[in-house]
Amino acid sequence: MAAMQRPAAVPLHELLAGANRVAVLEDIVDHTNVGAIFRSAAALDIDAVLISPRCGDPLYRRSVRVSMGTVFQVPWARLESWPQDLSLLKEAGFTVAALELTEDAVDVDRLAA
Q: What is the pTM of this model?
């Protein structure tokens, strides 16, 4: 059993200021998946994670457990206005790309080139 005080939310502009790579989670409601994505983000050296308003809480006990504590390592913020806040990423100079499994999807290797 553990208890903690929830840290203060980091303003989005502060989070993006020093970031090069950002992951955005849209409506991932399964806490196991949220934790796994945070663990992957830490392994891939992602600078920040942004979560949509309906996304599962990264500080939920199952998310923390599956993330192996990386929810405390990778900075994150909850977006307040989805999907309008994606424009803030574009304004900050980020290229926004989504992952999908469709026939006409752009291969990730081609996107990186």
A: 0.87
